[in-house]
Design a protein that fits this description.
Chain A has 416 residues and is an alpha/beta fold. In chain A, the strands form 2 sheets. In chain A, strands 1, 2, 3, 4, 5, 6, 7, 8 and 9 form a 9-stranded mixed β-sheet that branches. In chain A, strands 10, 11, 12, 13 and 14 form a 5-stranded mixed β-sheet that branches. Chain A starts with a helix and ends in a 13-residue tail after the last strand. In chain B, α2 crosses α9, α3 packs parallel to α7 and α3 packs antiparallel against α9. The two termini of chain B are 29 Å apart. With 366 residues, chain B is an all-alpha fold. Chain B is built from 13 helices and no strands. Chain B has one domain: Amino acid/polyamine transporter I (Up-down Bundle). Classes of the chains: A alpha/beta (416), B mainly alpha (366).
Chain lengths: 416, 366
């Protein structure tokens, strides 16, 4: 009996020690770093690390009772050799213990990304406080500026802001959600390259600068983050995609190209598409389109040249016919469907040409060539990432307009 | 003084013991090692070594069916007492060292994942004492605790498999032969050593009703553990691929922490750490218990329990010998070679001895 009691006592002690109480922290002794920014420092070999830290107990950017603006976050920028050193130095600047366990986003400046992210990514993947579900973004300008200008317009915590912002990409697919996991996989993959969300500070002056990738029959202008013509709202803007070759950023996809990328990735849920009215070219027609099914990607290798055949099926509903032409009728409908298919095909081809020109297979077409090889060595010798530029890509798009919104047909406006 | 007598156990206990004894490394870095050796074909390697170990266990069972008794008595009858003594010593040492290295692995893994601020020696001591107590409570207690843990392991595994679905890239399983046929063949055979502890069923043969019962324990225990390993390997490959997968030191932990469904369903790794540590403690206790059981035979002792604290301290001491994690993996590689000898060479040697001595002739103990 005595032995049994002894065993129970030892087990209880063991339990107490093996629980997480070892090294525990009270929540009010911690500060949560919501976002981390990386900029190139003036001094060679150093980086500027900006920590956007949630301010405990407030969590709102709305006006306070005394007319004073409550800050929901502070930004501290530290110049250091590595991220780890900057983290150590941060501890000397704040009284709380900083923790990265709730960090939502890592923002790299374009300048740093174009020089290569290998040195910065290493410690991130090794340290346990980072996790694959964090998001990665590339900022035009500096990350420190981006954080300072990022004042969510609605009463929302910063962590929730980043989460909802990046999860709601499916509403338009004008930017993509790139998690740390997918980004890192892209950096290491022999079957494709990495991409990241493009963000920037918009001056909100109302003067935009359209990108130049618009196709003739496409009606809408295209933009990248920071260039959208708008006034008001949060200055932080998410639009477009930064594309990589190896660990170096080599280009930018505008909002429309990003949407095309999302179609090829099978991530295009829905979005409005505007095209020139096929029978009245001065006007446009709108449809709310989404992928009917995942993209069909077929590949083959002929005479050493990789061939890719992409089939995209879209479906959706007509949302606006300003010309009043009855495209709902079967004889006109196919004309309209063909117009949408043609515009999307051209946009897809343009986007693919762009990525081929910079040698960045962000769609990861390389995966579809893997079945032709029996071993890893054979596939690595095929050297897909270097051969992407010479691939022959054929794109077919089929659009099915199945619904017409809440209208059966458009009646003409009297007197016009 | 009461002589030690193996307890009577049912099929469920046997299945859970085989499962516990053969699957604990799936929560550690076994998947990463398989991935490094076989690349995309790592899952085929897991399938191969599970099949190989099942075949070897059935060979041992065949011998027990023909000669009666347990594995130790079969050794006595076929190769004589002296060689049998050496075989028992060999197995006892393997199980002891395996327990020690597994203990070190679990200590390192929990320090990396959950108890990162805790003192390494303290974790080792706490785990060591827990293992000692589990072994002291004997095999029935380990088996029953295993029966409680198994459903949590299974449900948890299925949950992670489903929740990681958005990250799957099916083409990461190709090229089919990964790093080639030769490494696949070598590691497929060698990896059977991970399942050596399944031998406990035939070592403790008197605990089971008959050969059919033991066969069921092998089939379900090894089959279940193979299914779990295969599932983890496939999910790991589909999610991380070879290049990133090879970097991960704790594949299952990484899989669990990648789960992000929404604001409310994320960071689910914490409950898994508890489950896998419980599972690991039971596996270490089981390995230690079998080592002690064999030591009792070797030393021809009538009782078993006094050896448990002694060998537990020895296990803790051995676990602290490697200076760093790299040394642990090197020692584990060497141990795996010894385990492969234990699972292939000795049973095959016994089988050859059985055929040489004549199938129908009743083998003597000399």
């Amino acid at each position: 009996m005595l032995i049994r009691i002894g065993l129970v006592v030892i087990l209880v002690i063991c339990n107490a020690f093996s629980l997480g109480c070892n090294g525990s922290h009270e929540p009010d002794s911690l500060v949560y770093i919501v976002a981390i920014g990386f900029d190139k420092a003036k001094e060679p070999g150093k980086i500027e690390v900006s920590f956007q830290i949630a301010v405990p107990r407030t969590g709102s950017s709305s006006e306070g009772g005394g007319g004073e603006t409550k800050k929901n976050a502070i930004v501290i920028t530290i110049e250091a050799v590595t991220l780890a050193e900057a983290y150590n130095l941060l501890d000397s600047a704040i009284s709380y213990t900083p923790t990265l366990s709730h960090t939502k986003i890592l923002v790299f400046s374009e300048e740093l990304a174009r020089e290569g992210l290998q040195d910065v990514m290493g410690p991130i993947m090794r340290f346990r406080q980072y996790r694959g579900s964090m998001h990665v973004a590339i900022v035009k300008g500096t990350a420190a500026d981006f954080f300072k200008n990022n004042q969510p317009a609605f009463d929302i915590t910063l962590s929730k802001y980043y989460e909802t912002m990046l999860e709601s990409y499916q509403e338009s697919a004008y930017y993509l959600d790139s998690s740390l996991h997918t980004f890192y996989m892209g950096l290491k993959s022999p079957s494709g390259q990495a991409y990241a969300t493009l963000v920037a500070v918009n001056p909100t002056t109302g003067n935009g600068a359209p990108a130049d990738s618009k196709v003739p029959e496409g009606k809408a202008e295209t933009y990248i983050a920071g260039d959208m013509p708008r006034q008001g709202g949060n200055k932080a803007e998410f639009m477009g995609t930064a594309i990589f070759r190896g660990d170096k950023m080599v280009g930018v996809l505008d909002n429309d190209e990003t949407r095309m990328l999302s179609m090829l990735l099978g991530a295009f849920d829905k979005g409005f598409v505007s095209v020139v009215d096929p029978l009245e070219p001065k006007r446009s027609v709108n449809a709310f389109l989404g992928l009917e099914q995942g993209p069909s990607i077929k590949t083959h290798i002929g005479n050493g040249i990789p061939y890719i055949q992409v089939q995209i099926k879209l479906e959706g509903e007509i949302t606006a016919i300003p010309s009043g032409i009855q495209y709902e009728r079967e004889e006109y409908l196919s004309l309209l469907e063909e117009q949408f298919s043609q515009v999307i095909t051209e946009r897809l081809e343009k986007m693919l040409q762009h990525t081929q020109a910079v040698g960045s297979d962000v769609v990861s077409f390389g995966f579809y060539f893997r079945p032709y090889f029996l071993t890893r060595l054979e596939f690595n010798e095929f050297n897909w990432n270097d051969r992407y530029s010479e691939a022959q890509i054929e794109v077919h798009v089929k659009t099915n307009l199945r619904r017409y919104g809440l209208m059966m047909k458009t009646s003409p406006i009297q007197g016009k | 003084m009461k002589h030690y007598h193996p307890p009577n156990m049912g099929i469920m206990s046997g299945v859970s013991l085989v499962f516990i004894g053969t699957a604990p490394r799936v929560f550690l870095h076994q998947s990463t090692e398989q991935l490094s050796i076989n690349g995309e074909a790592a899952w085929l390697g897991v399938l191969m070594n599970s099949l190989c170990s099942l075949i070897m266990m059935l060979i041992v069972l065949f011998l027990i069916n023909k000669l009666g008794g347990d594995f130790l008595s079969v050794c006595n009858k076929l190769v004589g007492k002296r060689v049998s003594w050496i075989i028992q010593l060999f197995y006892s040492l393997i199980f002891l060292i395996s327990a020690a290295l597994l203990l070190r692995d679990y200590v390192e893994s929990t320090k990396l994942s959950a108890l990162h601020d805790a003192n390494y020696q303290l974790i080792t001591l706490v785990y060591g004492f827990t293992v000692m107590i589990a072994a002291y409570l004997r095999i029935e207690a380990i088996a029953r605790a295993g029966c409680f843990v198994l459903p949590f392991i299974l449900v948890g595994s299925i949950l992670v498999t489903i929740l990681l679905y958005p990250f799957y890239q099916i083409y990461q399983l190709l090229p089919l032969l990964g790093n080639g046929f030769k490494p696949l063949l070598i590691s497929g055979f060698r990896g059977a050593g991970y399942n050596l502890l399944a031998l406990l069923i035939v070592i403790l043969a008197p605990s089971y009703q008959n050969v059919r019962t033991m066969k069921v324990c092998f089939l379900w225990g090894l089959g279940g553990s193979a299914a779990l390993k295969l599932l983890y390997m496939l999910v790991f490959l589909l999610t991380f691929g070879v290049e990133v997968g090879m970097e991960k030191i704790l594949p299952f932990f990484e899989m669990a922490r990648l789960v992000f469904v929404n604001h409310y369903l994320q960071r689910i790794e914490a409950p898994f750490i508890i489950i896998w540590v419980m599972f690991g403690m039971l596996a270490i206790a089981l390995s230690l218990y079998i080592a002690v059981y064999l030591a009792r035979h070797i030393l021809n002792l009538t009782i078993l329990r006094p050896l448990i604290p002694l060998l537990s301290v020895l296990t803790i001491a051995i676990s602290m010998l490697p200076e760093n994690f790299d040394q642990v993996t090197k020692y584990e590689g060497l141990l795996l070679n010894a385990e492969a000898i234990g699972i292939y060479l000795i049973p095959l040697m016994l089988l050859v001895a059985y055929f040489i001595k004549g199938k129908d002739e009743k083998c003597s103990s000399e």
